[in-house]
Design a protein that fits this description.
It is built from 26 helices and 18 strands. A hairpin with a 6-residue loop joins β14 and β15. The chain has a five-stranded mixed sheet with strand order 2-1-5-11-12, with helices on one face. A five-stranded antiparallel sheet has the order 7-6-16-15-14, with helices on both faces. It has a two-stranded parallel sheet with strand order 3-4. It is an alpha+beta fold and about 750 residues long. The longest helix is centred in the N-terminal third of the chain and has 39 residues. α14 packs antiparallel against α26 and α19 packs across α22. Among the domains are: about 190 residues, Biosynthetic peptidoglycan transglycosylase-like (Penicillin binding protein transpeptidase fold, Orthogonal Bundle); about 280 residues, DD-peptidase/beta-lactamase superfamily (Beta-lactamase, 3-Layer(aba) Sandwich), CATH 3.40.710. The protein is about 45% helix and about 10% strand.
């Protein structure tokens, strides 16, 4: 609206009438006051809101008094070596009194020369920096004190993407926090916190972590030029990275040492000598993302994450100390033998696998790979997807990579101390550098094949049968189930000992279709011994048709050598907080799964598997006392060997992630594809760790007796009241004879008969 003009008459009245003039002036002044109050009110509200916004981003008093930097959780092996860390920021704390004094001198000389005299903010330095920025129009000159930088790092006051407003807000928050920090901490404490939280590159937070990463030494061992390099990295770990930007790194390091000369902390002659020294990094440095036991680390991480809610810790920030069961010496041997064997076996498989004979499979695998490709998934419409589909299908490099991945042999290998269940080594896959993939020790379930037979034989022994008990080695048909022997080889009556040693399918099958080892009883025995997976109580369980994990079947085998006591597998011994206070300790759970006598008989029988049966290949590498069992599933899909010595139990699975890819011939047997890893590991472990030789011992109540070895007509399954034509010496649990069990010595008749029946179930 246009301002109204006064007429000449109105002007005359205005000047002639004092009351009118006063009234008009009062009205104008009142309007001005209202406008001023409105502006003042708006400014006040804005300032209050801005102040509240500033305060909302400040650390609380509790945080100021108890700063909690993000600390890496460290995981240790049983022999005290660092296995790896879990962290968001890779950080290890150090005491300032243990650090070289020239590190502190270099820091103060370069970053904040008035550190000991200011109260958190250096106003004069700030003004000088702003003047330089205005003159140069660069706005690159900084003015933050060490305390301000600490506030920014400690309380995460910096945003990832800052505009000018964000920068101003952050600076104000830094000033306020810096002043509060100076009120609550000594200068020495501020320096210690600063050096423990600052980022030095290579995923290293804190000077101790940086020293280990760059030079593979402790911060206490840093030389003056190395200390100067770390001060240089504080400005920009990327721009002054000694690997990527060596010349820049040298110049900045020398500038730091020159600053020490200027402040009188370094002699100029010494400086001239030191500045010519090259930067020599450790050829092998501790990389936070790598571990010699990556799958074990991931297995431990999953367990710790599950416990975090119970104990209220943050695995990635609280700097815990985790003590585990793993023996890093055994782990290194396991890594080596597994890699060595897989390299050889991959070449053998590649020579025998023919994609031309598996065209339909290739089409299916390619289809899945293409539809899982990012290019295909990012296409916006059907035409785009079809175009990318055809392009990838015709891309030889892409197709070859899919073929290679599909036919990659995988491995699961775990070693356990059977006496306490401690996991001593774990190889979870062919890729030993990354443990976040599928763990083939804990994360797969596969049919164990004949490696499951010992649980059937254990049930028979538990029911009172004995190694010399004979079964007919001939085909049978049980409600349509008619298993075959390997190579379709059959004979007459054979002992249970011989049947287990040579992994005879029809003999084991006869046990599960009779009262010798009923399927339901086999399931109960296997579960009590440590199998946690679901088992189907069908007669075919004799051939290992129910799927299990390598970890659980290896753990269950440990029951044999541990006098029938099963120890649950365990990986974590103790959790401590960052101050060394114990959060929790862990002990294995023990169960007397089978009697010592049953376990002892099974160990004795399984020794024959290694000495003269399907596992005899062990003796090409390892000559110490050992027992175990091979396993091969149908069409060579999965190869197993699980075995033990008096000190260790270990299990090996070798196969493919895609069940449709299989070994093509005899080389896919457990005795060929899996057993060598076990045997080479045991050979190297016993040699390198100087493990003394011990022998398996028979339990009390196990005796050697002479059995009648009688010629029988095929098809005659009656074993009672036989006449002796020769003698066969074997062991038996005298206290647990089966019903109608006849034992003969020489020409004498029955010397013992158990009429109590089967009381075990």
């Amino acid at each position: 609206m246009a301002k109204k003009k006064l007429s000449n008459t109105d002007l005359d009245k205005y000047f002639d009438d004092p009351k009118l003039r006063s009234k008009i002036l009062k009205k104008k002044n009142s309007k001005r006051r209202r406008n001023w109050l409105l502006v003042t009110g708006i400014v006040t509200v804005v300032l209050i809101i801005f102040g509240a916004y500033i305060v909302s981003g400040l650390p609380s008093l509790k945080e100021l008094e108890n700063p909690k930097p993000q600390l890496a959780t460290k995981v240790y092996s049983a022999n005290g070596e660092l296995l790896g860390k879990f962290f968001i920021e890779n950080r290890i704390e150090s005491d300032i009194d243990s650090l070289p004094p020239y590190l502190i001198d270099a820091l103060i000389s370069t970053e904040d020369r008035k550190f000991y005299s200011h109260w958190g903010v250096d106003l004069m330095r700030f003004v000088q920096a702003m003047v330089k920025n205005v003159i140069s129009f660069s706005f690159k000159e900084g003015a933050s004190t060490i305390t301000q930088q600490l506030a920014k790092n400690l309380y995460d006051l910096k945003s990832r993407r800052e505009n000018k407003f964000d920068t101003a807000v952050r600076k104000i928050r830094e000033w306020i926090s810096a002043i509060q920090i100076e009120k609550r901490y000594t200068k020495k404490e501020i320096l210690e916190m600063y050096l423990n939280v600052s980022y030095f590159g290579k995923s290293s937070y804190g000077v101790e972590a940086a020293a280990r990463s760059y030079f593979n030494k402790s911060a206490t061992e840093l030389t003056l030029p190395e200390a100067a390099l770390f001060v240089a990295l504080l400005r920009s770990p990327r721009d002054y990275d000694p690997v990527r930007n060596y010349e820049n790194s040298i110049k900045r390091r020398n500038l730091v040492m020159h600053n020490m000369v200027v402040t009188g902390k370094l002699d100029e002659k010494e400086y001239e000598k030191l500045k010519t020294q090259p930067i020599v990094l450790a050829t092998e440095h501790r990389n936070a993302y790598q571990s010699e036991a990556p799958y074990f680390m991931e297995y431990v991480r999953q367990q710790l994450q599950g416990l975090s809610q119970k104990y209220g810790y943050d695995l990635y920030r609280d700097g815990l100390n985790i003590y585990t069961t793993l023996d890093l010496r055994m782990q290194r041997i396991a890594n080596n033998v597994a890699a060595k064997h897989l390299e050889k076996y991959q070449k053998l498989f590649n020579k025998n696998w023919k994609w031309g004979e598996n065209k339909e499979l290739l089409v299916e695998i390619l289809d899945k790979a293409i539809k899982g490709n990012r290019q295909y998934q990012s296409a916006k419409d059907k035409d785009g997807k079809a175009k990318i589909y055809n392009m990838l299908r015709a891309d030889k490099t892409f197709v070859d990579s899919v073929k290679k991945e599909a036919t990659k042999i995988e491995v699961g290998f775990v070693v356990i101390d059977p006496k306490d269940g401690y996991i001593k080594a774990m190889v979870g896959g062919a890729n030993q550098k990354f443990g976040r993939g599928l763990n083939h020790v804990t994360g797969i379930r596969r049919q164990p094949g004949s490696a499951f037979k010992p649980f059937v034989y254990t049930t028979a022994i538990k029911n009172g049968y004995f190694p010399a008990y004979t079964l007919l080695n001939q085909k049978f048909d049980y409600n349509g189930w008619s298993p075959n022997n390997s190579g379709d080889q059959y004979s007459g009556y054979e002992t249970m000992r011989w049947g287990l040693a040579h992994s005879v399918n029809v003999m084991t099958g006869r046990m599960t279709i009779s009262e010798i080892a009923p399927p339901k009883q086999v399931v109960k025995v296997a579960q009590r011994m440590g199998i946690r997976s679901h088992l189907d109580p069908f007669p075919s369980i004799a051939l290992g048709t129910s799927e299990v994990t390598p970890l659980e079947i290896t753990s269950a085998y440990g029951t044999f050598v541990n006098d029938g006591v099963h120890a649950d597998p365990i990986s974590i011994i103790m959790i401590e907080d960052q101050n060394g206070i114990v959060i929790d300790q862990f002990k294995p759970e023990f169960v007397q799964a089978i009697s010592p006598q049953t376990a002892s008989i099974m160990v004795n029988m399984m020794e024959d598997v290694v000495n003269s049966g399907t596992g005899a290949g062990v003796r090409r590498y390892f000559q110490y006392p050992a027992a175990g069992k091979t396993g091969t599933t149908q069409n060579y899909s999965d190869a197993w060997f699980v075995g033990y010595t008096p000190e260790l139990v270990a299990g090996v699975w070798v196969g493919f992630d895609d069940h449709r890819v299989k070994f093509t011939d005899w080389y896919g047997q457990g005795a060929k594809a899996a057993l060598p890893i076990w045997a080479m590991f045991m050979e190297d472990t016993y040699k390198e760790l100087n493990i003394p030789v011990t022998y398996f011992e028979l339990a009390n109540g196990i005796e050697e007796v002479n059995f009648c070895k009688t010629t029988m007509e095929q098809g005659d399954t009656r074993l009672a009241n036989q006449y002796c034509d020769s003698l066969y010496t074997d062991i038996i649990n005298i206290k647990n004879l089966p019903p109608k069990c006849n034992i003969h010595t020489g020409d004498s008749k029955i010397i013992k008969e158990n009429k109590q029946g089967d009381t075990d179930w």
